[in-house]
Amino acid sequence: MSQATTPSVWTLLAQRLFLAALFIALWALAASRMPAFVLPGPAKVGDAMLTLFGTATFLHDVGMTMYRVVMGFLLATLVGTPLGLALGSNRTLAQFFEPLLSVTNTVSSAIWAVFAIIWFGISNATTIFVVFMTAMPLILTNVWQGSKNVDKQHIDLARSFRMSRTQILRKIYLPSILPYFFSGARLAFGFGWRVSLVAETLGSSDGIGYRLRQAADLVQTDQVFAWTLTLVLLMLALEGGLLKPMERRLFRWKPI
Questions:
Q1: Relative to the CA of 172, which of 49, 132, 156, 216 has its CA 20 to 30 Å away?
Q2: Per-residue pLDDT averaged across 202-230, rounded?
Q3: CA angle (195, 63, 134) in 5-degree steps
């Protein structure tokens, strides 16, 4: 009887390095056939990244973008999680608020950015609001779906022990919705990074999105690619260094 084996760390690393090398090779080939202002090559973008790292505002811009994303994400978690639990545990509330959630999910981040500029002007609140309005429905929906999938037998057993509604939510619902919450939170955090750039492009005077718009206005394509690559590397570092280890730790009890 054969058993599926997972690739070793070194095999996985070799695969990732090969994929990165293939991407860079194709990028260099395409760049060699186009003007630099349309598609700069890897070497030119690498030089631009080194220039970025040496600027006085680099750490400030990255830090401000991270601050806005994290604040919007935390607010979305604090609001979306209890609302999702409430809707998942109460069918009447769910039927009443479901149309409102559908409307919220259909409004694009660009529209929220326009509203945020009108309401908050050029400020941190603009980006934080856009991240919040993008991430909160994702977290709420995932927690709601997780709450609906809670085993009814566990709820009946808890009620037979005369547990209060608060105790049932804390001891039955919360552990059950944790995988759903984490899935929604990872998705919301990723979307939060993306929409923060839109908001900073429209309503901020610093941050990665603002620098991207500034470089694009000056047709500094290598700077645009450098900032984009910096953002991608930052996201990969957060994914591999924080989110995945946290997920493995939280769900280490689950069978592989």
A1: 132
A2: 87
A3: 20
pLDDT band at 1 (very low <50, low <70, confident <90, very high): very low
Domain boundaries, the chain: 48-250
- Buried b or exposed e, range 169-193, using 16+ CB within 10 angstroms: beebbbebbebbbbbbbbebbbbbb
Q: What is the SS3 assignment for the chain?
A: CCCCCCCCHHHHHHHHHHHHHHHHHHHHHHHCCCCCCCCCCHHHHHHHHHHHHCCCCHHHHHHHHHHHHHHHHHHHHHHHHHHHHHHHHCHHHHHHHHHHHHHHHHCCHHHHHHHHHHHHCCCHHHHHHHHHHHHHHHHHHHHHHHHHCCCHHHHHHHHHCCCCHHHHHHHHHHHHHHHHHHHHHHHHHHHHHHHHHHHHHHHCCCCHHHHHHHHHHCCCHHHHHHHHHHHHHHHHHHHHHHHHHHHHHHCCCCCC
What is the reported pTM?
Answer: 0.79
What percent of the chain has a predicted confidence (pLDDT) above 90?
A: 10
Contact 196, 72 (CB under 8 A): yes
